[in-house]
Amino acid sequence: MAAETTKRGGFGGKLAAILAAAGSAIGLGNIWRFPYITSEHGGGAFIIIYLCCILFLGLPLLIAEFSVGHNSKCNPVDAFSKIKRGWGWLGAAGLISVTLIMGYYFVISGWTLNYAIASATNSIDGDYGAFFTEFTTGTWAPLIFTYIFILANHFIIIGGVQGGIEKASKVMMPLLFVILIVLAVYSLWLPDGREALGNVFTPDFSKVSGKTFLDAMGQAFFTLSIGMGAMLVYGSYFKKGTKIAGTAISVVSLDTIVALTAAVIIFSAGVENESGMQLAFVAMPKVFSAMPAGNVWATLFFLLLGLAALSSTISMHEAVTSYFVEKRGMSRKAGAWLVTFIALALATVASLSLGAWSGFTVLDMNFFSLLDNFTAIVMLPILGIMTAVFVGWIWRKEDMKAELTAEGGIDAKTYPVVRFLLRYVCPVLVSIVFIFGLIDFFNNL
Ligand code: TRP
Asked: Three-class SS of residue 365?
C-alpha cells in the first residue's frame, strides 16, 4: 500500500490542485458554449437558473467526485470498486464518455489553433462564414490542426502529473486569466459594448421554458467536467490534508467567473444574435475586424479559447491514461500513446463527418453531433445521478463523512448540506430533467 501511494504521481500543493482542476473545468464550455446558450434562453433569466444548477447540483457532485478520488487514490474504475465492490462500471462509463467527448472536443480545439494563426497573420479576409465552412468541411487542414493539438496534449501527459500537468497548468491558467481580463477591460471600454451588455443581462423570463432548465443543467455539468472521471483522477492526486469542499468551491467560483466574463466579452461585441459554433468562429472575428488593431484582439481571443481547450483536454486524456497505467499495467508512456491513438482515430472520423463523410448519418446526425448529443443528453445526466446515488446512498456514511470532514473548516461545515443535496436533491432533479430532455430530443427528431 505504501509503495503504491508513493509510486503514484500527485500535485505539489493546494494551488496546483486548484489550477489543474479549474483548467479541466474552464474550457470551450465556458467561452464558446455558455455565451450562446445564454443568448438563446433569454440572457439574465438563464443565468439565474444556471447559477442555481451550479450551486445545488454541480458543486455537490464535484465535491462527491473529488472525495471518491481522494479517498481511494485510484483511477476511476478502481476508485469506485475499492469503495464498494461491483461499482467499477460507474468509473468505466465515465471513461467511455470522456473518450467520446475527446472525439469531437479535440476537433474544435484544433480549429482554435488555425484561427489564432489566421488572425495573427491577418489571413481571414472577406466572408467569415465562408471561411469557417470551407475550413471545417475541408479534409486535411482541420485534421492537421487537430493532430497538432492532440500531440501537444500527449507530450504534457507524458511529462507526468507534476512535471507535465501541474507545470502546464501553472503556466496556462495565469496566462488565460490575463488574456481574459485584457479582453474584458477592452470590451467594457467600447461604448456600444456597455449598452449591448445591459440588453443581454436583463432577464427576459418570457424566453424561459422546460428546455431552459434542461440546458442550464447540462451546461452546469459539462462545464464542471462532472461524472467523467477527470475530476475524480485529479482528486486522487490531491495531497493528504487538502480541503475537498474548499477546493471545489474555488474551482466552481473560477469557472463561473470565466463563463460570465466570456459572456461579457462576446455580448459587448454585439453578437448576441448569433448562435452555435458560428458565434465564436464567425461572429467574433468579424466584430474584431471592425476594431482598431482587430487582428491582435482576434489572436488573443483564439489563444484564450485554445488555452482553455488544452487545459481541459489534458484532464480528459489523463483520466483514461490513468486507467491503462494502473488497471492494465502499462507504462505511462504506453498508456498515453494508446489514449492518443484512440483520440486520433475518433477525432479523424468526427472531423471528416463535417465534410467528406457528412453523408453518413444516424438519426439525422453526423458522427460529430452524435458524439456531442449522446454524451450531453444521455451520459452526462446518468453519470450525475449515479455519482450522487453512489456517494449519497452506497458509500458507508462514516467513511464518506470522515473523508469530507477530516480537514475541518469549511469542509466540516458544508458536509451535512452536501450529503442532503447528494441523497435527495441531485437524484430527483437530475432524473426529472433527464426524462424531459429525452422526450424533448425525440420530439425534435
Ligand atoms: N469542462 C469542460 C469545458 O467546459 C468540458 C468537459 C466536459 C470536460 N467533460 C469533461 C473536460 C471531462 C474534462 C473532462 O469545456
From this structure: strand
Helix (H, G, I), strand (E, B) or coil at 321: helix
Q: Which residue has the CA at smallest separation from atom 8 of ligand 1?
A: 225
Residue 1 contacts by C-beta under 8 Å, 6 or more apart in sequence? Answer: none
CA 161 to ligand 1 centroid distance, Å: 18
Task: Spell out the long-range contacts of 185-188 with Cβ–Cβ below 8 A and sequence spacing 24 or more.
Answer: 186/297, 187/264, 187/265, 187/268, 187/269, 188/264, 188/268
Architecture of domain 2-443: Up-down Bundle (1.20)
- Atom 6 (ligand 1): residue with closest C-alpha? 225
Cβ pair 91, 78 in contact under 8 A: yes
Q: Would you kindly state where each structural domain of the chain is located, as residue ranges?
A: 2-443
- Compute, in angstroms, the gap from residue 233 CA to the centroid of ligand 1: 13
State how far the Cα of 315 lies from the Cα of 75, in Å rounded to an integer: 12
pTM for this prediction: 0.95
Residue 365: beta bridge partners? 362
Q: How far apart are CA 75 and CA 177, in angstroms?
A: 30
Which sign, positive or negative, has the C-alpha torsion 200, 206, 211, 214?
A: positive
Which pLDDT band, with edges at 50, 70 and 90, does 20 fall under? very high
> Ligand 1: residues within 6 Å at CB?
24-25, 27-30, 98, 101, 222-223, 225, 228, 230, 312, 315-316
Condensed to tens digits (0 to 9), the pLDDT of residues 46-57 reads 999 999 999 999
Q: What is the pLDDT of residue 274?
A: 66
State yes or no: pLDDT of 4 exceeds 60.
no
